[in-house]
Amino acid sequence: MHGLINRAIQCFLRDTYGDDVWDKIMQQADLGYSSFESMLIYEESVTFRVLELAAQALRKSPDDLLEDLGTYLVSHDNVEALRRLLRFGGVDFVEFLHSLNDLPDRARLAVPDLFLPELTLEEPNEGEFRLRCAAHYPGFGHVMVGVIRAMADDYGALAFTDYVGADAEDEVISIMLLQEDFAAGRSFELAQKAG
Predict the structure, then answer these.
(1) pLDDT tens digits along 178-191
(2) How many domains does the chain contain in total?
């Protein structure tokens, strides 16, 4: 697993629950180190072990924890760069959804050895979407539920998002867009101001 993913989990847990919770999780994981380096590659078992211990420590289901991670990745000030990357996908929520097919490739442009599961958006009816996340990393669909809910808020859209389930190939998310211009949304400018 790429260190950027593990580092994102670390930042989420520290920023949301504090250093003491993070330290306890890492002590229980007994990895021989207390933090992740962004540009290293780790065994997938390490990532899943840390997530399992975090869910136990916080008395949350692993699915809820992953969804909270997805929300954090879009809404917390410490990860503004990811929000900006996602907002470049479209001027409104529907354009953003359609840009998800290209997200793994856009991520690889920034970090060539970062592998994200392939995403496929389907629109069976107007305002109804299904996002298929290739099931390479179990639980990635729950992260995407949090991301999509946070991005709907970011754009000011009213959308109902639900994790449908998983099969051998994909995790599936249902997205029902109720109103695209429900609220003002968060401000976003294409060019970031210096200083």
Answers:
(1) 988 776 666 656 55
(2) 2
